[in-house]
Write a structure and sequence with these properties.
Layout: E1 2-8, E2 17-20, E3 25-29, H1 36-46, E4 77-84, E5 106-113, E6 118-122, E7 125-127, H2 129-137, E8 148-149, H3 156-159, H4 162-172, H5 176-265, H6 271-326, H7 334-353, H8 357-379, H9 388-483, H10 500-523, H11 528-593, E9 597-603, H12 612-617, E10 627-633, H13 647-664, E11 669-673, H14 681-694, E12 699-703, H15 707-712, E13 715-721, E14 727-732, H16 734-741
Helix pairs in contact: 5-9, 5-10, 5-11, 6-9, 7-8, 11-13, 13-14
Bound molecules: adenosine-5'-triphosphate and magnesium ion.
Length: 742
């Protein structure tokens, strides 16, 4: 409910002036030009009037106190209107801009105008005009201002176009709030449609990239599976291969060690060394043998000499015994005999060699001489006689000495023979040893050769193992490159002896591993995780967009539904409202004119669609272009054309309609500026009756010069123009009012 209005610096109200509206009907009275209509305009102004024309100005500055001789001009016009909000009727119809807290017992709207523009406030908080409109819409105070009838506009409802009239009636029926909601929803719908198009475009843009990434990811996943298979197979292969290598290596080590140990145990002696060693001992033995044999033969010679000496001695003894028996024994020296014999032999040899007989004869003659000479020498020799026994004894002593010596030598010979035999035996042992050793050496050399062959074989085998190790390490490196660094992490494999089956299995595994490896290498080491991440991101984004589209579709559908519902509501409420208004209108009309009839009818004005799209999409809104026509039939008069009615009649019909509208949906207040001006006394009374009737539901502020109207008001404000040229307000009694009004 309207409580009060505060005007300062607005038009003729130079100073702050407050009007309270505590009673149902407040009348504002005063002489012409005192500023009554300015009060009405201040109300229009604060409620957001945009038409300068209806504020009787050209620009904002016309609204500001222009100053007088006594009072300087103002720089700002301000009007504040206060409503009671104990029942919390005020609300924002739309959520947009619902920043102001409306849970106040009072709502004060204020509008200020300066040279630069207008500012709006709700309870002191700066707001936009839109907020003011929404707020007022929620309490049936529409922007059309149908409830404020300015001076000279008593027949406003009649003069308005059928479309404007419809607007005023919608306002009066409180349908503006739905209109606002529809407009808001339509705006939202528009935005949402644009948004949808944007999102759809984004999604369309994304689609090829997503499908490309999808294919990539599929490829990566396949590769990943292949990689997994490769990893498993490779691990199997690696376990077999590595185990086999470890085993082969261990086996080879053991075998080679054995071979080398055996090889080390075979003494290695050079044949020459061996030979020289043996030659030495053999030579020593031979030398020993030679000296033993020499010694033996020396003893033999000595024995022979001794035997001969003994023989000679025995001969001597024999000769001694013969001399003794014959007692003539001539002793001739052997040398002499030998010499003569030698000469004879040589003479014979030379004679035999000679062919000449004379030579033989001379030789024979010389031989005769020589022999004769020798014989003569013998016969000339003096016999010597020696004591026979003395000689024998000496000889026999000599013989026994020689025989003793012989016995010694025989003993020595026996031992010398033993020594020789011993040395021979030693030599034969040496020879035997030598042969044995040689045999051994040959056997050793043969074994060594065999063993060396085995060592070489071991080396080959090791080489083979090393090659396998290299190949394995290479395979391992490649696998690691393909699988990433730490995918293969194996412990030392247990040694594993090869069997034909395990070898075959290993071979088969290796071939499979190689095949997969080629495929993997062909697939290339794509940075899979990045692509997958991008795919996931893109997919998430696409899903988000898809969901967004669904959401937008949903919200669009619900917006359309809302709009549809709102339109239905408006349509229904409007028709119902018109019916109700018609009831009241007819009644007021009859009351005013004492008969006849009046009613509103809805006429369809075909709106020309702005473009094709609008027609198809918003075809539904076309019926809203309906207008309202007023149909009257005055009692006893045939004239139906409103244009042809008198001023008073027009005012009466207009007032009847306004009151009917206000009756159906009472506005918080009605402002009527000399609406009664054209009425005669009788009609003024009827007008006054209707005011009293209406004031039950709405506050009425009437500007009037009419005595009858004044009499209906509980409070009268007198507006006068002081010497300062500014309006002044005073609360007055009815009689004073009548006085002032005059
Ligand atoms: P009537 O009974 O004839 O309708 P009224 O009381 O309604 O008279 P208004 O129309 O309210 O009179 O007041 C008009 C007066 O206000 C004029 O005299 C005009 O000079 C004065 N006025 C209008 N605008 C301004 C302004 N900006 N500054 C000063 N005075 C102004
Ligand atoms: Mg006036």
């Amino acid at each position: 409910m309207l409580k009060q209005i505060e005007i300062s610096g607005f038009k003729s109200f130079a100073k702050k002036t407050t009007l309270s509206f505590d009673t149902p009907i407040t009348a504002i009275v005063g002489p012409n030009g005192s500023g009554k209509s300015n009060v009405v305009e201040s109300i229009r102004f604060v409620l957001g009037e945009q038409s300068m024309k209806s504020l009787r100005g050209k620009g904002g500055s016309d609204l500001i106190w222009k100053g007088s001789k006594l009072l300087p001009a103002g720089s700002k016009a301000r009007v504040a209107i206060t409503f009671d909000n104990a029942d919390r009727k005020f609300a924002f119809s739309s959520s947009a801009g619902a920043s102001a807290d409306l849970s106040f017992d009072e709502i004060m709207l204020a509008r200020e105008v300066t040279a630069t523009g207008s500012d709006y406030y709700i309870n002191g908080t700066g707001v936009r005009l839109k907020d003011i409109n929404e707020l007022l819409g929620s309490v049936n105070i529409g922007a059309s201002g149908h409830h404020i009838i300015s001076q000279g506009e008593a027949d406003r409802l009649l003069t308005a176009s059928s479309k404007d009239r419809r607007g005023m009636i919608e306002d009066a029926l409180g349908l503006k709030v739905y209109q606002i909601r529809i407009r808001d929803s339509e705006r939202k719908l528009e935005k949402t449609t644009a948004n949808l198009k944007e999102v759809q475009a984004l999604r369309r843009e994304l689609a090829p990239h997503l499908s490309f990434l999808g294919k990539q990811v599929e490829k990566i996943q396949k590769t990943e599976e292949l990689r997994k298979e490769f990893g498993e197979l490779f691990n199997q292969y690696a376990a077999l291969e590595s185990g086999s290598i470890v085993f082969a290596n261990g086996q080879l080590d053991a075998e080679e060690k054995k071979i080398r140990t055996e090889l080390a145990s075979i003494p290695e002696m050079q044949a020459s060394e061996r030979d020289s060693k043996h030659d030495q001992s053999r030579n020593n033995a031979f030398a020993e043998l030679r000296s033993a044999e020499e010694y033996q033969s020396k003893l033999s010679h000595e024995r022979e000499d001794l035997s001969r000496a003994i023989g000679r001695i025995e001969g001597k003894l024999d000769a001694l015994s013969v001399v003794h028996e014959t007692k003539s024994v001539t002793s001739v020296p052997a040398e002499s005999v030998q010499s003569i014999c030698t000469d004879i032999i040589s003479a014979i040899d030379s004679a035999a060699a000679s062919d000449s007989l004379s030579d033989v004869r001379s030789t024979l003659s010389s031989m005769r001489h020589k022999v004769s000479a020798f014989t003569e020498s013998l016969s000339g020799q003096q016999e010597e006689f020696v004591d026979q026994s003395q000689v024998r004894k000496g000889i026999e002593e000599e013989r026994s000495a020689l025989e003793a010596r012989l016995t010694e030598i025989d003993t020595a010979i026996v031992s010398a023979r033993g020594a020789v035999a011993a040395v021979r035996e030693k030599l034969s042992v040496i020879e035997r040893n030598l042969r044995e050793e040689e045999r051994n050496a040959y056997a050793g050399a043969a074994r060594r050769a065999t063993l060396e062959g085995m060592v070489r074989e071991c080396a080959l085998r090791r080489e083979n193992i090393e090659r396998r190790k290299f190949v394995f390490a290479e395979a391992m490196r490649e696998a690691q490159a393909l699988l990433g660094t730490v995918i293969i992490s194996r412990k030392e494999d247990a040694p594993q002896a090869d069997t034909p089956e395990s070898s075959a299995e290993r071979e088969a595994l290796y071939r499979r591993v190689e095949r997969i490896k080629i495929k993997l290498e062909d697939a290339g080491a794509a940075s899979g995780s990045e692509v997958i991440k991008e795919f996931e991101d893109t997919k998430t984004r696409d899903e988000f967009l898809a969901k967004e589209i669904v959401d937008i579709d949903e919200s669009m559908a619900s917006l359309r539904e809302l709009i549809h519902e709102l339109r239905d509501t408006i349509e229904r409420s409007f028709k119902e409202g018109i019916e109700k208004i018609n009831e009241q209108f007819s009644e007021f009309f009859k009351l005013m004119f004492g008969g006849g009839n009046a009613f509103l009818s809805i006429i369809v004005e075909h709106r020309r669609p702005k473009d094709e799209e609008e027609e198809s999409e918003e075809g539904e809104s076309l019926p809203f272009e309906h207008g309202i026509e007023i149909n009257v039939s005055l009692p006893h008069k045939k004239v139906r054309d409103l244009q042809m009615l008198s001023g008073g009649e027009r005012s009466l019909i207009s007032i009847a309609l306004l009151f009917a509208m206000s009756q159906v949906n009472p506005p918080p207040f009605l402002v009527l500026d000399e609406t009664d001006a054209a009425l005669d006394e009788a009609n003024s009374r009827k007008y006054g009756d209707m005011l009293s009737h209406l004031s039950k539901h709405s506050k009425l502020i009437v500007v009037t010069h009419n005595r009858e109207t004044m009499s209906r008001a509980q409070v009268l404000y007198g507006v006068t123009m002081g010497i300062e040229g500014a309006s002044k307000l005073l609360s007055i009694k009815f009689d004073e009012a009548v006085q002032i009004a005059k």
